[in-house]
Give the backbone structure.
Amino acid sequence: MQASPELKKVGQQAFEGADHLHSATIHLLRGLRIRDRESGIGPAQLSALSVLVFAGPKSLAELAQAEQVKPPTMSRIVAGLVRGKLAYMATNQDDRRAVVISATTKGSNLMQEARVRRVESLARAVAALHESEIVLLRKAARIMEELSRKV
């Protein structure tokens, strides 16, 4: 893959490292997503539910922004979550014209179970690594968290 002239300013080593990291994270997430099928809902609903469970109640606009979709798309996703009793809508106490979307107990439980399945799959793979690789992986995870706040 060729870097643009602007990206080449960051250096070839940084670009190649970023390219490798990008590819590895995509492959890792694709592998883990297979376990999400067991949740019984689609990836868009599971992702939106994740935001509600781990970040708390959101307005439709906030949820759409978090998921990087347009509000009409998020309306359809939320409607599916509400139909499945995984989320509910309530009037915003500060602005009676607006609604706040929250996860139900059923939705929270489903999300927690999905997360456990993903983490268990990943933990089995990590357990096969040498102890020094696990230490390195934990350091890399912290660095990836820092990177996620910069991109």
The chain has one domain: 11-148. The two ends are 20 Å apart (CA to CA). Strands lie at 87-91, 99-103. The domain at 11-148 is CATH 1.10.10.10 (Arc Repressor Mutant, subunit A).
